[in-house]
Specification:
Helix content is about 45%, strand content about 15%. The protein has about 325 residues and is of the alpha/beta class. It has 2 domains: about 200 residues, no CATH class; about 90 residues, no CATH class. The strands form 2 sheets. A 6-stranded mixed β-sheet has the order 1-4-5-6-8-7, with helices on both faces. A two-stranded antiparallel sheet has the order 2-3. Strand 5, helix 3 and strand 6 form a beta-alpha-beta unit. Helix 7 packs antiparallel against helix 8.
Length: about 325
């Protein structure tokens, strides 16, 4: 039986990475994420609520917001389900933090770097297909040379990380494997590889939670499951509506022809269109769950061209 916190729940994610007592876990993860670029020795948690640009502006609330010892500002977000304009949303978050650095009066625009890291428990078709990690920076389009290091967005599409425990070679890969599968573990892997995973096991062990924390965790799990159930119901309803519409259109077309053959053809066409629409909706669901193009083609019968077109239409 699994004995560790589900990190995809809002409370669970913040319990692991967003507290002073577990701050060293976040530092270790970030150092492994940026391995070879820079080393974070310490960080300070900041106010997760960014005040709007005017009194009527809506506040932006992050999962985790912190500043490193070198002055880099880092946003860490966990997103369970795909949503429209998710990439733009991350850009907006990052831009707001940059804007809030502004100083009235004389100022030379010497801004601090702002990095946004998005854990995504879904696949966004707007990002490169089949790529687990996408790093976005301001760079020259032709040469790829970075123009500014002041803004950076890193998207981690967890469904596309397919390595097994034995195949993980770096601590960053071990982190991703653990976070993706932690709520299924009976034991924490990699304890002999890095002491940080021992600390992670202690922090995330359900048996060590107080009753108050367990109640908060269970509420968070309940909210997460309700949101998923609503999402699934919306997909199911869309499929049923599409099938009904197809049948009705087929019947209407057949009856309008006034002959039995025309009616039969209309019904069959309606069924075929409904079935095709069902496969399109099913393909959208499979794309959001991170399934491969080959698997989607196998289960829906759609062509590769149709699948790519569906992926693009999601945005």
């Amino acid at each position: 039986m699994a004995q560790f916190i589900n990190p995809f729940s809002d409370w669970g994610f913040k319990h692991i990475f967003g507290r002073e007592i577990s701050k060293d876990l976040l530092i270790c993860f970030l150092n492994d994420l940026f391995a070879g670029e820079f080393v974070i020795k310490s960080l300070a948690f900041g106010n997760k609520e960014q005040i709007g640009l005017s009194k009527d502006s809506r506040e932006v609330i992050f999962d985790i917001y912190c500043t490193t010892d070198e002055g880099k500002e880092i946003i860490v977000e966990m997103q369970n389900r795909g949503q429209e304009h998710f990439i733009d949303r991350a850009l907006y978050y990052t831009s707001r933090v940059i804007v809030n650095q502004g100083i009235k009066g004389e100022w030379d625009y010497d801004i601090r770097p702002v990095y946004t890291i998005c854990f995504m428990n879904f696949v966004d078709p707007l990002l490169p297909l089949g790529k687990f990690r996408t790093d976005m920076v301001l760079a020259d389009r032709d040469t790829g040379k970075t123009v500014s290091d002041k803004i950076r967005m890193i998207y981690l599409m967890l469904p596309l990380f397919e390595k097994t425990e034995a195949e993980c070679e770096t601590d960053f890969e071990r982190w991703i494997f653990v976070l993706k599968n932690m709520n299924t573990f009976e034991r924490m892997p990699f304890l002999a590889k890095n002491a940080v995973f021992k600390k992670l096991a202690e922090i995330s062990d359900l048996r060590t939670l107080s009753k108050k924390d367990m109640d908060k965790y269970e509420d968070s799990i309940r909210i997460m499951r309700d949101a998923y159930a609503t999402y699934k119901y919306a997909i199911k309803t869309g499929l049923e509506d599409g099938r009904k519409q197809g049948l009705e259109e087929g019947m209407a077309q057949g009856m309008a022809q006034g002959i039995e053959k025309g009616m039969a053809q209309g019904i069959e066409k309606g069924k075929a269109e409904a079935e095709h629409q069902k496969n399109i909706e099913f393909a959208k669901l499979m794309l959001s769950d991170g399934d491969s193009t080959e698997k989607i083609q196998k289960y829906t019968g759609l062509t590769i061209e149709e699948i790519y077109a569906i992926a693009q239409s999601l945005h």
